[in-house]
Amino acid sequence: MKREALDELKQHIPLLEYLQAHDWQPARALSRGRWMGLCPLHTDHKPSFLVDPTKSLFYCYGCGRGGDVIRFAELYHQVNFPKAITLLREWCGLAPLLNAVVNCYRIQLHRYNEALAYLDQRGIHSLQVIEHMRIGYAPGGCLRSCLLQLGYPLSVMQRAGLINASSHDSYSRRIVFPLDGNLYGRSIRSSSSPHLFMPGSKGGLYLWEHVRRYPAVILVEGLFDYAVLWQAGFRNVTCSLGNHLNARQFQQLCDVARTVYVAFDADANGSGRCASQCLARRLWAQGVSVRRLELPDGHDPNSFFLHDGDARQFQSLLEEAR
Ligand SMILES: [Zn+2]
User: Fold this and answer.
1) Residues in the 5 Å CB sphere of ion ligand 1
2) Taking 90 as the threshold, does the pLDDT of residue 74 lie above it?
3) Which of 81, 200, 211, 245 could be stapled to 249 by a disulfide with Cβ–Cβ 3.0 to 4.6 Å?
C-alpha cells in the first residue's frame, strides 16, 4: 500500500477515538494535551499508557510498546500489518452502518406484536430496558430498502453479513441487540438456530463502560439474563455472550481490583457450572475476588425471574455466593 493511502487511513481514524471505542479511558491529563491511562495491551494496575492525540501516537512505559493507530491495531487484535489495515478499514465503515441497522430495527420492534410478545414471554416488560439496550426486531425484508435509501450499496450489506445471498435479512425474525462492533440476534422461532452474530469478534463485555466503575459486578451469560437483572434494579450487571470469555473480556474484568459475581446458567449438563469454576480460577490467579452464584438446578438468571424469583431473592443469592 502506498504511503499516501496509509496516511489517509490514519487521518480517518484518530488514535484517541479508536482507543475510546475500544473502552480505553484516560486516567489523568498531562501537559500538551497528552493523556495517561491503563495499558490495554497488558494487565496494567497503574496507568502506564501514554497517548498523544495531537500526534496520534502511544507509548506504554509498562510493556515498552508504542506507535500509531495501525501499530495499536496490530498489537491489540494480535494480527499482522495487512490484517490490521483491513480491520481499521472495516471499522471506519462499520460503525455508521451498524448504527443505521440498529435504528431501522428499533423502529420495527414496536410494529410487530410477535416481537413484543416474545420479549414479554422472556420477562422483558419495561420500555426503559428496551431503550437502554436499544433492542430492535428484524421482521425480514425491510433492511435492504432502508439501507439503500441511506446510500449503502447491496454489496456492503452482504459483505457485513446483514443480507444473505438471496438478498433477505440475515437476522430475519430475530430480536436484535447492538453490541460493540457486532449485532446479536435471538430467533423468536424454535425452528431456527437460536443465536446469530455477524462474522468477527463478539466484542468486549456488554456495555462495560456503564459498569466498570462499580466495585462489584455481576457477570451473566446471556442478554436476556442481563435484561431481567437490569430491569429488577441491578445496574452493576454485564454479559459475556456465552460462558467462554474472549481475551479482551477477561482483561476487562482484571483491569482494577473488584469483586466479580459469576451468575452463569445452572444447566443440567453442568457446562455453565464448569465454565464458571474455570473462570473463577483464572480470575483468582489475576488477583480478582470472585464469587459464584448457586442458582436453582436448571435455571439461569432469566428463568429465575420468570419463575417468580424477585430482586430480594436474587440479592440473597448474591450474599450467599462463595
Ligand atoms: Zn503496556
Assistant:
1) 39, 41-42, 60, 62-63
2) yes
3) 245
